[in-house]
Protein 1
Amino acid sequence: MNDSLLKIACYRCGQRLDLSDLEPFSKVECPNCAAEITVPRWFDSSYLLEDVCGSGLIWNTYRALDVTLDREVAIKVLNPEFAEKAPGLDEIFLEKGRMMARLNHPAVIGIYHCGEYEGQSYLVMQFMPNGSLREAVDGLIPLTFGEKLKWMKQAALGLQEAQRLGVEHYDICPDVILLDSERNVRIGDFGLTAAFSNLGLYRERLDYFSPERLGGMFETYSSDVYSLGVTMYELFAGTMPFMDNDSPKEALRERSGKIDPPRAVRRDIPERLSVLIMKMLALTPADRPGYPEIVSVLEECTLFPPDCSSDTGSFWKKLFG
């Protein structure tokens, strides 16, 4: 395929356009119907990069068309200048991609292919068209209580499967929990951002870090349970359990202080769910629940949703104590 040729059809009127000499990702108008078109770019012969989904210092993510299989995908491309900062950085990137490809589960973003093109390492993955949980916790996506329960159950099941395969995430937060075309959640970036953070090339938010990570201690799947607990607190209570801190030492001190239970923040949160989230936020990893318990409580809350305008609150109290 000649990568210098770029002839496409207008998505609105079907007019054939030759965009070969235009800057990739610039905007042009269709001369026939005036529809705005983003100029795509060929990538590794089989992919047509259609738009930029996310841009960062370490990698860029694109919405793309896999022309071989005629399907929409997302492509994460490692910036080559960062690959020069540490030996083997590009191989770490590809290694994490191959690791994620092992996680064949409905709640994990599928990895289709990884490789190198023009000195750039890249991952081809399932395209997630409906944003991330970040938009939900920021109030940009209206949610029902049932949807929140469903999404957190799906996330817990995905992490449980990862644990079964010996894979930890190490960076669970709303930004890596994405929504597919059917508004189900899928988790991405297993081990990816943590690997670059450990090399000093990526600065993560400390809000979702477990105490053991803040203290530089050994992490296990229980660290992901803690981070999922922070995410659930934020999703259900509408606020973070801690103050925002830039210093790991200050953040760790914050973890050791008193945390208001989610139900103290919002009275419509079931007591059983509030207790679960607080257990997930236990300072000691051994005191945190496993994924089967998390899934079980979320299922109980789905079967018996709260209704604070009736006597359901007393029903919850009798049922769960």
Protein 2
Amino acid sequence: MIDNDRFLGCILAGAVGDALGAPVEFYPIETIRERFGPTGTTGYAEEYDGIGTITDDTQMTLFTLEGLIRGHRGSHDDLFGPMQHAYQRWLHTQGLEPVWANNGGVFATKPEPDGWLITNRGLFSPRSPGVTVTRALRSFAREGRRGSFDNRLNNSKGCGGVMRAAPCALLGEDAFAFAVGTALLTHGHPSGFLSAGALAHLVHLLFQDTPLPEAIAATRAKLLGWDDHEEQVAALDAAVELAAQGPTPESIAERLGGGWTGEQALAIAVCAALAGEDLRQALLIAVNHSGDSDSTGAICGNILGAIQGTRAIPDEWLAGLELRDVIEQITRDALAEFGDSPPEWGDRYPFW
């Protein structure tokens, strides 16, 4: 049984890390220091016309939660269909095609997408969505073919698969394989989907009270059973080594990269989680580097939130987090759905 506060902490801390990293994503560390001082950013800054604003990382995490809820209350035979449907609803919020039929494809059986989550208009805001993800979902809308092991849509190992994978830990021992499958819906390179499986499995182990170093070692062992694991395993090993030495923005860039790819993003997040004395320090390590700061911050938040729960998140960061009420509500709904007595959701979460 997953501790409710720790699952909520996993999702909320991920959103906080995302919001911390959003204003410094794309900038080299030299520019970050020029803007915020020698230690880099230390809190929320303005981005997307607001303070504490989330990005596509958190948006897609919320739709992953919705896909899990709607899939779980269905036949249980095919959770990837509900997940694809959820991601097509997220695509609709990005405004690339205003008509639902052009975003939903085979799922567009009604004039507008259904369910409670998409009624929250704050989600209808493009937040630098990943090109790989939007291309894959738009392709599905046109052709109706899901990405899978047998249908690789591309050879992308971008971090768009791993940054949304933490909720898959709800599936317990099946989390690794399921997260791999959800990432394959958009990313065809092994490092793009194995990183997602690794994060989901790591978070699952943390919910079982496995200490972080042991959970990382067990996740590494799990990876060894999958083909083409070498790049992801090497990145994890480098993350553990660098955490023991004490990471700096420069050493992160040199040893782990910028976080743009799946294996890099997971490695930077793991390194920061190991090196930080508390969640605050770890998140600041995770976002103050030359690269994909929102994704590395989000993943680091997922990891430490799963260990420490909501109590570890600084109050001022929670208070200023965009769409906090929506994030908390759908996370609690997912816990209820996967609990002992799932509610009768009705139109809130229709059968997919």
Protein 3
Amino acid sequence: MPHDPMRPKKRRVVVTGIGAVSALGSNLNDTWNGILEGRAPAAAVTHFDASQAPCKIAYEVNDFVLPEGLISDRERRFLNTAMVYGVKAVAEAMEQAALVPGQVDPERLAVCLGMGLCSADVDWCERIFLPKKYADPSLDEHIRFNPEQLASVVARLVGAKGGNTTIHTACASSGQSLGEAYEMIAYGEADVVVTGGADSMINSFSMVGFDLLGAMSKRNDAPQQASRPFDVGRDGFVMGEGACMLVFEDYALAQARGAKILAEICGYGVTESTYRITDLHPEGRGPVEAMQMALEDGGTAAAKVGYINAHGTSTQINDRVEALSIAKVFGTGTGAPKVSSTKSMTGHMIAAAGAMELAICINALRFQILPPSINVFQQDPACPVALTEAVATPTELSFALSNSIGFGGSNTALVARRWL
């Protein structure tokens, strides 16, 4: 929605911590290095028997270990896979931000997370409900399916009493959670917000559902080359999983406590396309408006944006319409921003995608390097954007933008500024 001119922003919002879990690694550093190396760790699915599924490949998290002592055994029992990834990412982000419970006013510390369908455990449902074990005490584990469960645990972990919000807008979930967290601080509703997203939908129920929609790649014989954003031969996305969490903070507070600032968040746009549940409007109406709103919100000229991490799912419609949307806002000539979709390396992390991709934008700004565009064997001429090179490339960046586009028509855009 348009921002109320009678409610001007008075506070700057900065990022002081980031944590990540992905198929590239169980922390931000390993994930970022995997991006720079252009790795695509997609492989045959092991989380379930996918032998009969049309799509048999995914970007799975491997060798993940939850550090001892973060949560109790009872809490662990009530968390599904995605939520456990989220707990680990929150711990990493809080450590980098050098924040411990009680350090800031708990009434001014909030949690705002993007969560998905929480990966319904089909095997568990069959085990409990098909035999009609109504008296089975393990029925209480149904709480694992509740999206708000992670935010409740995170609030306890970080000592947050200033609000607890869970957002589900499909693939735009964590992008919207970041934007709402940003506005909470900018408008003085909170001083610190732990935000981001987590998801794990590598299961038979979810993957077959996306298969039936025609959204997933069928390149089972070449998993590492299957995700091809903006390539003429793209045939669908490849599922990923993981989490990415960030600590957003009022600049004055971060400065007062001597925190290391990673970047500034300086613009947010959110729109609804109101077109079709699974398709973008062919003219890119919603994404265009979200990007324009984010630029206007931060007072950032389009010409200043040097890099865009596109939603870029590797589906025919999404990539074409998003590319046209970017071209409408930023142009296609000399000076147009470089564009990439890092889903080719992380897989589509669904509700966690937006947070991961903003984190990658922030690292691109910090280290002045453009993430590579891999698996682009022939760029689709219907996608008129300036893609990054096939290898990570040094550059000069001041501003970066991250897009998220969700089923149902939700669109978000976030602008980040390099911190000098």
Protein 4
Amino acid sequence: MHYRSFFLTAIILSPLILQCTVPPKMTFHQTKIIAHRGAWKAIGTSQNSVASLKEAIAKGYFGSETDVHLTADSQLVINHDATWGGLTVQKSTLAVLRKTKLSNGEELPLLSDFLKIIKKQNRTKLILEIKPSERGREWANATVRKIIDAVHQFKNQRRIIYISFDYEICKEILKLEPFANVQYLNGDKAPADLKKDRIKGADYHYSVFRKHPEWITQAKELGIDINAWTVDNSETMDWLLANNADYITTNEPELLFEEIKKSPTSQGWKMIWNDEFDYSGLPDSSKWGYETGGNGWGNNEKQYYSDADTNNAIVKDGVLSIIVRKEKRGNNEYTSARLTTKGKGDWKYGRTEVRAKLPAGRGLWPAIWMLNSDVDKVGWPDCGEIDIMEHVGFAPDSIFGTVHTKAFNHLIGTQKSGDIIIDHFYDRYHVFAMDWSPEKIEMFADGEKYFEFKNEHKTLAEWPFNSPFYLILNVAVGGNLGGKKGIDDSIFPATYKIDYVRVFQRE
């Protein structure tokens, strides 16, 4: 891609607030992408090499991360591990270390080699990881001083972000360079602690943020940058992008760039509600309630919906499972669960995304849908219904999306709907999404739009979608639609798996 078009695309996709003042002529790419040890993987070159740094710059990534050690003869070398060629870097001289070449034939690079290259451009920042020292605090502090002196020598202060697992190293940098952008790697400090010590970034392994999602909110409130390392799979990238991470460090920068383009946050959406199911037990009661009973639900369904029963709804290993069982409950032959956000999550307009793996079997009827929060007052179908995804087991490989209103509903055969056939239907997760604005409702499966319903600006009978709605997840058994071709009792227990639910609204 031409650099100019890449730059414009990156700015549109992913604005990033820098923590330092950039001179008027400096225009860094702001794609959130930090290439881990340079952009080495796609071109098959060495990590932490001059070639990998140049490739990161050529691709226009926001940053190129690298690792710095001080040798026994006071040379600053680029290398990840504490050893090189079987020798301890901090106890060896440069000449001895350079007897072993990088896999691409380069000599072991010096920091000065990188600083010369980074100075020639204003596209990519150099992320310097200063390694903890095996030789004690005095050696570590000497390393810090020498690195800062080198950065100043090349007038690269505003092209550098410093990172370290050693908290004392972070503080030492700020003693010598009070306005430096310093970020901490170890993951054991809350954002408030970083703020107190003037450290500008929580640069933690992504698992830390999954364990402490509240730190993301706290960091945003305190002006602390969020970076996650080392993220090489699309699911984690998507989660971090949805949570508006400032930076993502990756060995797969090309994949991350594609995920950024697809992310709702790159299209002006901001996540306002979500459940990632990063806990165990019953669904979070602050987010989910239950609709219970076995009254047929107006569709002659055969299941009984249980109330807060882990036999039918349980969270484990990052997934919500709705389990349908063949067991008697009252006058019903089956049990299931119907989870709702009513009174806990009600939204007017926005984008709803659910990543789910559907259960297979004739007689099952899993769904993701929404009802008007005033349904009890207004009644159905006047209240309106949005079916983001429905599937019936007798029609494998396909789903459908539907809207119901007073004028358009299945009781009078006027409902508006669309459907789509999906590859690998039951053996993997799929993302089902709905975009809802004052003008239209659109349905998507794995990013492909398959249904659109436009507001013709007539009456509430045609468009009752200008008030808050809540979300429902359930699996019915049988019924007027799901049971059209009977129920196969050999499929039970059947499990509907939900990986996440995310709701976005426009910034």
